[in-house]
Every structure is written in structure tokens, then in C-alpha cells.
Amino acid sequence: MDLTHIEHIGIAVKSLEEAIPYYENVLGLKCYKIEEVADQKVKTAFFRIGETKIELLESTSPEGPVAQFIEKRGEGVHHIAFATSSVKDCLAKAEAEGLRLIDKAPRKGAEGLNIAFLHPKSTMGVLTEFCEKGE
Ligand code: ZN
């Protein structure tokens, strides 16, 4: 895998409205975008820090994966996303190593990126995402 950097860290929050002031007023980061990803039943707020982004995730549905995560584990770090030039290659390598994939093929995520997830049961509890720039 040719991972280049941490593209973003996903953080599950109950409310963007309550979480954003901490990132802006205390940490001094600027929320540059709020985007809804209907596919994943989340509303996301983005902050940049160096090459990496912080992606706050608020569920838009009680059945969404982020709502379920918060119910089980509370608010907090939800996933780590690595930047790569080929999500497809990363998935092929992970599959060859016998890891459990959530996505068998890349799909569209927030910010127009192509993304795919590995299952946290195969990765010592860390939901792992690969991201590549879309065309
Ligand atoms: Zn993500």
C-alpha cells in the first residue's frame, strides 16, 4: 500500500452545533465546510490542520452507523482515514491478507473522494478508511 499521510480523522459527535465551537474557539481551527453524506446518514463538518482534516460526524438518523457507534461506545474517535493513490490496490492487499472489508470496491465519500472501509474487527478495533482523490 502506498499510504502518504492521514487524510482525516473521523470523530463521532451527538451534535455538530455543540461540537464546532470547541474546535473553532478553543483549538482555533476553522470549519470550512459542512456536508451531508446521505449514503452514510451523516452530516459532516470539516477542519484542516496541515495535510490532515478533522471530520466531525453527526448522524442524521437514529439507525445510521454513527448513531449506533455513539450508542455503543459514546462520542469520540470513529475512524482513521489514510490517503492513497489507489483505494483499489489497498483493498486488494487487505483482502489478500485475510482482512474483513466493509467495502469490496471504492465508493464516493465526502469531498468527492473515493473511499473504502476495512472492518474494525480485523484491524484491532480501528475502523480504517482509505481515500483517493476522485477525478
Ligand atoms: Zn472518513
Structure description:
The chain is an alpha+beta fold and 135 residues long.
List bound small molecules: zinc ion
Named CATH topology: 2,3-Dihydroxybiphenyl 1,2-Dioxygenase, domain 1
Total helices: the number is 3
Rounded to the nearest angstrom, the radius of gyration is: 15 Å
CATH architectural type: Roll
| Whole-number mean pLDDT | 95
Biggest sheet layout? 8 strands, mixed
Assign an overall shape.
Answer: globular
Q: What is the CATH class designation? A: Alpha Beta
Stretches where pLDDT falls below 50 for ≥5 residues? none
Q: Roughly what percent helix? A: 10-25%
* Domain count: 1
How far is it from the N-terminal to the C-terminal residue, by CA? 20 Å
Structural class: alpha+beta
Order of helices and strands: EHEEEHEHEEE
Strand portion, in percent? 35-45%
Question: Number of DSSP strands?
Answer: 8
Topology:
Layout: E1 3-12, H1 16-26, E2 31-37, E3 42-49, E4 52-59, H2 65-73, E5 76-84, H3 87-96, E6 107-108, E7 113-118, E8 128-133
Parallel strand pairs: 1-4, 5-8
Antiparallel strand pairs: 1-5, 2-3, 3-4, 6-7, 7-8
Bound molecules: zinc ion (ZN).
Zinc ion is lined by residues 8, 10, 55, 79, 81, 129.
Structure keywords:
eight-stranded mixed sheet; 2,3-Dihydroxybiphenyl 1,2-Dioxygenase, domain 1; 135 residues; globular; alpha+beta; binds zinc ion
Give a brief description:
With 135 residues, the protein is α+β, with helices and mostly antiparallel strands. It has helices spanning 16-26, 65-73, 87-96, and strands at residues 3-12, 31-37, 42-49, 52-59, 76-84, 107-108, 113-118, 128-133.
